[in-house]
C-alpha cells in the first residue's frame, strides 16, 4: 500500500507524490524531528502535533498520506504557519535531530522526499485553507486530551524535546513496532 501526498483534493496527478508506508513514516519523522526542535509558538507546536499523528502505527497502512489543505491551518496565521513548515523541511534536510532515531534515515532517499513535500507546501495558498479542518482535528481529542496535547505540549523523556501525541512519541512507536 502507498500513501499519496497532494496540495488539495483536486490536485493534478502529476503534482502528487506517493510513498510506501515505511518511507512515509521516515520522511514525516524527519519533519517532526526538525519541527519539534524549531517550534516555539502554540500554533507551530499544534502543526507539528498534527504531523505526529500521521504515522502508520496510528493511522494504519496506506492511510498516512494527506492533502496539505487538511492540515490545521488558520487563515489569519497562514503565511507564518506555511513559512514555519517550510523552515522545518529545510531544517530536516540538514538532518536536524536525525541522530535521535534508533535507525538512521537514508539521506539519499529522505532528502528528495522532503523536497517533493516542500514543493507541495509551497503551492499551498490561503484560498485552500478550511478552518473546519482545525476544528475537526481538535474534536478528535477528549477534553482532557486537548488540555494535555494542545496546551501542555508534552515531549518524550527518551527522545528529549520530541513532541508527542496522545499515542506517544513517533520514535518510541517505531521502536516498539
TrEMBL record:
Protein name as it appears in the record: Uncharacterized protein
Native source organism of the sequence: Ruminococcus albus
Lineage of the organism: Bacteria, Bacillati, Bacillota, Clostridia, Eubacteriales
